[in-house]
Amino acid sequence: MGEESAIVIDGPAGVGKSTIAKALARKLGYTYVDTGAMYRTVTLFALEKGIPIDGDHQEELLGTIEGEAFAFVFVGDDLQVRFGPRDLSQAIRSPEVTGRVSQVAALPLVRQGLRRRQREIAQKHKVVMEGRDIGTVVLPRARHKFFLTAAPGERARRRYQELRAQGRQVEYAQICREIEKRDQLDSTREHDPLRQAEDAVLVDTTTLDAAAVVDLVIQKLK
Q1: What average pLDDT does this structure show over 128-148?
Q2: pLDDT digits (tens, 9 = 90+) for 180-196
Q3: Do the beta carbons of residue 122 and residue 6 sit within 8 Å?
Q4: Which of 77, 82, 168, 221 is most buried (CB neighbours < 10 A)?
Q5: Three-class HEC string of the chain
Q6: Phi and psi at residue 11, in whole multiples of 5°?
């Protein structure tokens, strides 16, 4: 356990981080940690409580996740994201949350507060942790770092298929625009922008399915 034993999966939106990280965690018997879900939780609670998402309300936003713990629990083939007793798996994936989460993720005090929680989890468990700044900021001493990438059009196609499989009525062109906007926001934000760690292994997943990526990562781990 501890930061050094962590397996880090970073990369932009729609690249398949969650799919790969979950598969790795199950294969290796590690704890899976979706840091993006933590930012989405703050976003959801802000929307539910009517808290403005801006720099003047950062302490109030961070206060929405005081007193309870995050848990990422496999139930059969599905993953539940829990905060205390509440299952947030579906609520944090709503279009409303998706449209605002980048604003929450750009707030430095919120990032600091969630970073502490992420590090605490890594100290207590062997983790596969995925996000956008795990290898560069959250767990920089991790021995095993991977940065996933894929062509924007392919990432949009994957996200489109995922949302359609959930029964959501979406347009491919809209998903492309959202991917481009998210990339721009994540890579240019002032605090902890999306970038590849210098010691991370770059994996282009454009032409690879999930199983092939998992096999490649496991080979690198060995």
Answers
A1: 96
A2: 988 888 888 888 888 99
A3: yes
A4: 82
A5: CCHHHCEEEECCCCCCHHHHHHHHHHHHCCEEEEHHHHHHHHHHHHHHHCCCCCHHHHHHHHHCCCCCCEEEEEECCEEEEEECCEECCCHHHCHHHHHHHHHHHCCHHHHHHHHHHHHHHHHHCCEEEEECCHHHHHCCCCCEEEEEECCHHHHHHHHHHHHHHCCCCCCHHHHHHHHHHHHHHHHHCCCCCCCCCCCCEEEECCCCCHHHHHHHHHHHHC
A6: 155, 170
pLDDT at 1: 78
Q: What angle do CA 178, 65, 197 make, to 5 degrees?
A: 50
Please tell me the total number of residues recorded for the chain in this structure.
Answer: 222
Quick one: fold of 3-221?
Rossmann fold (3.40.50)
The arithmetic mean of pLDDT across residues 35-45, rounded, is 97
Q: Cβ(130)–Cβ(142) under 8 Å?
A: no
Q: How far is CA 55 from CA 22, 109, 112, in A?
A: 33, 9, 13
DSSP strand pairing (31-34 vs 127-131): parallel
pLDDT for 222 equals 85
Q: What is the pLDDT of residue 157?
A: 93
The C-alpha atoms of residue 3 and residue 115 are separated, in whole angstroms, by: 13
Q: Measure the CA–CA gap between 53 and 42, rounded to whole angstroms.
A: 10
